[in-house]
Amino acid sequence: MECIFGLVGDGFALVVADTSQVQSIVVQKTNEDKIMILDSHKLLGVTGESGDRVQFSEYIQKNILLYQYKNGIALSTSAAANFTRGELATALRKNPYQVNMMIAGWDKDVGPSLYYLDYISTLHKLEKGGMGYGAYFLLSLMDRYFEKNMSLEKALELVDKCIEEVRSRLVVSPPNFVIKIVDKDGAREHSWRRTVEDKQGPPPTAAPIASPMAEDISVQS
Amino acid sequence: MSITSYNGSALIAMVGKDCFAIASDRRLGVNFQTIACDFQRIFKIHDTLYIGLSGLATDVQTMHQRLQFRHKLYQLREERNMRPETFASLVSAILYEKRFGPYFCEPIIAGLNEDGTPFICTTDLIGAKQLSKDFVVSGTASESLYGACESMYKPDLGPDELFEVISQALLSSVDRDCISGWGGIVHVVTPGQVVTKTLKGRMD
Predict the structure, then answer these.
(1) Complex-level ipTM
(2) Which of residues 61-100 of B touch A (CB under 8 A)?
(3) Counting C-beta atoms within 10 Å of the first and last residue's C-beta, which end of chain A has fewer, N or C?
């Protein structure tokens, strides 16, 4: 049950997403990064159909960089959000992408901004928002505790409250979350909130079990 | 839920004495969940022409972008603004182009003619124009809106009285519709100026 949310604070914007990749009843991995860094000062958090998620977000990222290379100037967050909306809207009545997105960015003149972009390409600029089943719990938490121009510490406290709520109240809640931040210093990964570690690599070698049929047992390590 | 009631909306336009008022609610929702209370449904085409779009929010945004594009092109070619009747015909034509795969939005067009007389009209989602002398409504709360407007409306109201009447009609109707409301915005347009006011209503 994917969950993505974001909020705008004092000079920064945060996007938080779960990191589980699920196929039917199987959790394939728990460290899937669903928040793409579009360019130096933009984040695109995407949830939804896995193939569409990866294909569409990579397509948007490449086009945003292409604009920068062609024109020598980067797109503003508002322009990038509207471009993304346009691509989704054009595809909507042909072969729709089933992806929900939160776009966050930082511009010198506007400061931080956050956009909600639905799978049917409804675009809206927000100070706080969320999508997925988790949103049913954390939108009201954010209504209660969010203030304008929060400091990063207070914003992270709110994010942790939201993650706790999703973990405790959502039936198939994702175990791990990633938090990414964008501010005047750029877009970057901030931290993870893990409860499960993904085991990497083959299991450690163990001594072979002694068998009465074996004449010689040698242990190699 | 039906596709036209996916996001929720309520719109009214009313005719007064040499002025008109256009009002909408501000909720953006996804079925029963509210996403925002500052969604824009009424768009200015030029100083004396406004269009309000109800229905599916994505089509509201797409229609607004297409109409703004067409009007800007018209301005470049004709070196003047579009008259309200012409614009209404343009809206109707654009909607009918998609007759067998329509935009799920129902616009309200309100403007002042060159002589200062107000013009309002509405169309359905495939462009059937409906001109009116007094008021037009649109949105998920349309049945309530028809009733409220019919009882509260009087002809030849001045701008201030018109604002009162349209605000009361909007607020009382959206209070009976769970997926519209969460505030309101009213534009009262006279030949010389536009007064925009936001309404404080029940936020539920």
Answers:
(1) 0.91
(2) 61-62
(3) C
Name residue, tokens 């449904």: B41
Instruction: Give the pLDDT confidence score for residue A208 in this predicted structure.
Output: 63
Cβ pair B56:A121 closer than 8 A: no
Where do the DSSP E strands lie in chain A? Answer: 3-8, 12-18, 21-23, 26-29, 35-39, 42-48, 99-107, 111-117, 123-126, 128-132, 177-183, 186-193
Question: pLDDT under 50 in chain B at which residues?
Answer: none
CA A101 to CA A83: how far, in whole Å?
A: 13
Residue of A nearest to B100 (CA): A93
pTM of the entire predicted model:
0.91
Query: Is any Cβ of chain A less than 8 angstroms from the Cβ of B58?
Result: yes
**How far does B60 lie from chain A, in Å, by closest CA?**
9
Please determine, for residue A10, whether its predicted confidence score (pLDDT) is greater than 90: yes
pLDDT tens figures, B50-105 = 999 999 999 999 999 999 999 999 999 999 999 999 999 999 999 999 999 999 99
> What is the end-to-end Cα distance of chain B in Å, rounded?
19
Burial call A108-144: b when 16+ CB within 10 Å, e when fewer: eeebbbbbbbbbbbbbbbbbbbbbbbbbebbbebbee
pLDDT at B97: 96
Angle separating helix axes B57-78 and B84-97, nearest 10 degrees: 130
Residue A121 with chain B: CB contacts under 8 Å: 58, 61-62
DSSP-assigned letters across all residues of A7-51: EE-SSEEEEEEE--EEETTEEEES----EEEEETTEEEEEEESHH
Classify A128 in phi/psi space as left (phi over 0), alpha (psi -120 to 50) or beta: beta
Q: Which residues of A touch B62 (CB under 8 A)?
A: 89, 121
What is the pLDDT at residue A160?
A: 96
Q: How far is A133 from chain B (nearest CA, A)?
A: 11
